[in-house]
Amino acid sequence: MTTAYDFEFVGINGSPLPLKQFEGRALMVVNVASRCGFTPQYTGLQQLYQEYQGRGLTVIGVPCNQFLWQEPAKETEIAAFCEVTYHITFPMTEKTSVKGGSAHPFYKWMRASLGKAAHPAWNFHKLLADRNGAPVAAFRSKVAPDSAEIRQAIERIL
């Protein structure tokens, strides 16, 4: 059976980012962009990461330029923006396709597992996998990282 840990991204620094390294941890994978109305959600994502990482949650940011080209920067610029502006310490990938035929295999798998809800319609779409790497939930962009809905879902799987 395929799990989230079977997939690998490329890190924002160009190094491999195998999800296997997070085996046994819950994962929240979020497609992000620096020039989006939802960009301030980085603050909530970082807060979630800080609050729950000790209990077994890893947040992973996936920069994507597929939604009105709101992530045009290079990886080095994205990393600097996230670090300086939002003090991001969770793992980030290189720019990655999250929808359509060119979507990263992780995103195709989540969609096959969870259905249309897992298909990102915009930036800051959140996908949640449990400690076994099984798909659990998807949250639209408008659902804030610090919302009761997301916190309850995290609490259930931790």
Could you explain the architecture of this structure?
With 158 residues, the chain is an alpha+beta fold. The protein has one domain (4-157): Glutaredoxin. The protein contains four helices and six strands.
Topology:
Elements: E1 8-10, E2 16-18, E3 26-32, H1 41-52, E4 57-63, H2 75-86, H3 105-114, E5 126-129, E6 135-139, H4 148-157
Question: How would you summarize this macromolecular structure in one to three sentences?
Answer:
The chain has 158 residues and is of the alpha+beta class. The protein is 28% helix and 18% strand.
Order of helices and strands: EEEHEHHEEH
Q: Radius of gyration over alpha carbons?
A: 14 Å
By CATH, the architecture is named: 3-Layer(aba) Sandwich
Q: Ranges with pLDDT <50 over ≥5 residues?
A: none
**How much helical structure, as a percent, in the residues?**
25-40%
Largest sheet: number of strands, sense, barrel closure: 4 strands, mixed
Question: Which features does this protein show?
Answer:
four-stranded mixed sheet; Glutaredoxin; 6 strands; 158 residues; alpha+beta; globular; 4 helices; two-stranded antiparallel ribbon
